[in-house]
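Report of the visiting student (M.T.), summer placement. My assignment was to run the structure pipeline on a short list of targets and document each run. The first record concerns RNA methyltransferase, TrmH family, group 3.
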Amino acid sequence: MTQEKTYIYGKHPVSEALLNAPHTVVRVFLSPHIEDRDFKNLITKTGVLVAPLSIQGAPFLEKDAVHQGVAAEISLSGLMRPYREFVDGLEINPHTALVLLGEIQDPQNVGAIIRSAAAFGVAGVLIPEHQQAPVTGLVVKVSAGMAFRVPLVSIGNVNTTIRDLKERGFWVYGLDETAVRPLAKEVFDAPTIFILGNEAKGIREKTRELCDVLVSIPMNPECESLNVAASAAVTLYAWSTGHPEALTPKKSSKE
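After the run finished, the structure tokens were exported:
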């Protein structure tokens, strides 16, 4: 069964949620000793329900959770955006990049990729509904609050989505450690989508066939290959160096 809600702890992640995705916040839990006026004003401004958090915590708090007297209940379904709604409203230009997860199974990797996507100015992370680790509380936690900052988009059929994006002008790159084309050779002068494959099997064959270019990250041959999350960080950094516009802070969501 898909997890419908989760809890986040601490002022920073709760502030990220309130600023960037207030529609996902069901309620905020506060300890009586919290005196941060700016933080309280932020809660008031968003109109989110507030409930007390006792000194001893609450049943939902994880053991040893560092909550700083602040926690929030999050609707995970509210985090995901429908593909059609997202793409029809997307500003597409040469500085637009998307990441598509292709059957990634480890939620730690999903969370880390989301964090890198936010760090390097990616416009959205496309997450298949099937054969893919879903967005869970662990994913949100690993993303360090960035799951509220970068759009997370629910997609159906991966290949159908790729074809649609190609028709909209996107150039499709598949990350493949066996590819002969090195990442550093790419200019990335068109709207770009990066396909990240399964941790063990890589990108599915039919999806590989839809890629315009397969790229690899040159490495010391004596070193084991990077995992998919580390590879994503390297790739997105390489893309962002040619697109400083993507690193310009965006206005907070007003949803």
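The longest strand covers residues 25-30. The chain has two domains: 5-78, 90-247. I thank the supervising group for their guidance throughout the placement.
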